[in-house]
Every structure is written in C-alpha cells, then in structure tokens.
Amino acid sequence: MTTVFLELRNLQKVFRVGLLARKVTAVRDVSLSLRRGESMGFLGPNGSGKTTSIKCILGLIRPTAGSVKLFGRDPWDIEARAGVGYLPESPYFYDWLTPREVMNYAGDLFGLDRTTRRTRTGALLERLGLGHAADRPLRGFSKGMLQRLGIAQSLLNDPELVIYDEPLSGLDPIGRKEVLDLMAELRSQGKSLFFSSHVLTDIETLCDAVTILNQGKVVAAGRLDALLDRGALEVEALFELGAGGEAAARALLAVEGSVERERTGARLRLAVPHDAVDALLQAGLAAGAKLEQLLPRRDSLEELFVRKAVRVEARGESQDSQDAAAKGQP
Asked: Taking residues 90-104, what's their average pLDDT?
C-alpha cells in the first residue's frame, strides 16, 4: 500500500452563486501531501476554503480542476473511503435514533459483521463518555454529546486516516481534553490525522505539519519545526515612567523598532526586537524609568497564523461565506 495517504495537486473549486450564477472561487491551486503516521493541521480564517477542500477530499463535491488522491486512489473509490474516518463540522443524526442504533447503522454500511459492530460500539461509546446514554434517543442530547457520538462513529471502521472538521466544536473543557487525549492516542497508534481547528495550541501540540489557507490559497505549508522560528522574535518590557513622565515615554519609544503595546497611567508596555534590548534598557535608565518586567516572545503557531493569514492585505475577490455556500451544494 502507498505510504502517501492523502494528496492534493492544484485543487481548485469554483461555485456558481446567485440568480446571475456569478463565479466564486472557493479553493485556488491547493496542493498538499500527508503520509502514513503523519498529522496535519488545516488552518485558515472563516471562509478560507477549508470545508470546501475537505468535501473535495471526501468526494462529496467534485473539484473544478486539479486532483485528489486517497491512498493513491480517487476519492470516489469505495475501498479508498473505507479507510477514512470523517467528522463534519456539525454532525447531524436522526433524533429518534439512539447512539447504539447510529453506530450499528454506520457499521453495517462499512460491512462490519454483527459481533464486530457490537464490540466496537460498546468500546467506543464508553471511550467517548456515552456508555450511560447508549440507548437514549438523540433528541435530548446536547451539542457536545452529539459531537462525541460523531467522533465515536468516525472510528467505528478502525480507519487509517482520520479527517475532522472542527472536532472540538461544542465540547466543554472536560470533553475537549478527552477528545484531545483520544487524538493523541490515535497518533501514537500510527494513524494519520488531518483536521481543521481554530484552537491553534491544539494544532501545535498534535500536528507534525500545517497547511494555512487564506482566500482559498495556501499561504504557508510545511513541518512546524521548519516554519516556526524558535528564537525570540521580540521582547516585551513594562516600565514605570516615574518622574520622567512623557519625556521618559518618548525616550523609550525612540528606540529603533519599539512599538507601544499598552499605556496605563504611569506605566508603559512596549515591544522591541530582541537585538534592541540593550538600547532600550539604556534609554530607560537615562530617562529615569524603572523596568518592572522583561519577557521574550517566541514564535508559535498563533504568531505564524497572524503573520500569514490575519495581517495579509485583502486582495482580489472576497472569500467571505464561501465555505457556508459550499455546504449548501449537493
């Protein structure tokens, strides 16, 4: 079997929207590759094309151009999809069913025999904290409980590749920790994870690599250890201005590269490049300002996301609501 579980090459998806069938490009030339045992975070602001890309990966919608391969096969290949566990952003189940009935139905679709379905259903519902509610109708379930059921269902076929769209949505702090622990277990078992999340610290903890989209395009991609600069990017300092007052503030802000972060009464918080710390301290001493705090700020996935996806200048056609529009497509 191929070691490349997921591959996108120049993926593009264009929708026709509105009465005039206006073209809206949701995904533009997205390429990525995920190998056996790797975990990848799929990131981007709302409307950046994440959900549309995931639907193309799963064969739920067809790309306008480019290609998608699951285990080296087309995403419409039944055998390829049999190796995938999927959780949509907002899983929906018929509310008159019970969790056990949902799991039994999903297992039957995967062709699992009755004994296997029963054994895996019991184990997964217990693992996701739903054992006590296995035979209760779903109409009384909270959003978090439905999310747990969706995760349990996604693992019923013992998939080699798990694809989750916002798996932590709707979960309380305990539920988030339990699901994160489960995903860490899957990773330790050699499963491949591909998931989107707005909680960047979780991505940084669980993933080997990330792909960041903005306006449907890849703006950053690669292994985290290569993308992040683990040296100090800048240093934040908090000064008590003292008798110097405004003159001290002007002297501190005159240091090359300094940026004011916060001003509260006689206190000034500012940031400087790490190589300007000596100049800042000398300026503060000369102006009679008292240093109260000095903290290095190191690179993180959040910093990378802000640099690549938030601060980028808007250009071209707005991508707002494109994922939402895509969800309404057949």
From this structure: 94
Domain residue spans of the chain: 4-83+159-228+305-327, 232-298
Helix axes of 173-188 and 143-154: crossing angle, nearest 10 degrees: 10
Alpha-carbon span 250 to 259, nearest angstrom = 11
Cα(60)–Cα(163) distance, rounded to whole angstroms?
13
Measuring CA to CA, which residue among 9, 23, 5, 4 is closest to residue 319?
23
Instruction: Say yes or no to pLDDT of 210 above 90.
Output: yes
Q: Give one word for 324, left, alpha or beta, with left for phi > 0 and alpha for psi -120 to 50.
A: alpha
pTM above 0.70, yes or no: yes
Superfamily for the 4-83+159-228+305-327 domain: P-loop containing nucleotide triphosphate hydrolases (3.40.50.300)
191, 155 contact by CB (below 8 A): no
β-bridge partners, 290 = 240
HSE-CB for 110 with a 13 A CA cutoff: 26
Torsion of CA 275, 280, 281, 284, to 10 degrees: 180
Antiparallel, parallel or unpaired: β 232-240 and 267-273: antiparallel
For 233, how many CA atoms within 13 A lie in the half-sphere containing its CB? 12
How far apart CA 249 and CA 232 sit, in angstroms, is 24
Which listed CATH number (1.10.3720.10, 3.30.413.10, 3.30.70.250, 3.40.50.300) goes with 232-298? 3.30.70.250
Burial of 19 (0-12, 13-18, 19+ CB in 10 A): exposed
Res. 172: pLDDT tops 90: no
Residue 217 CB partners (closer than 8 Å, separation 6+) = 28, 29, 30
Distances (CA, A) of 260 to 175, 248, 267: 39, 13, 11
- CA dist 246 and 145 (Å) reads 56
Apex 54 CA angle, 50 and 55, nearest 5: 120
Residue 213 has pLDDT above 90, yes or no: yes
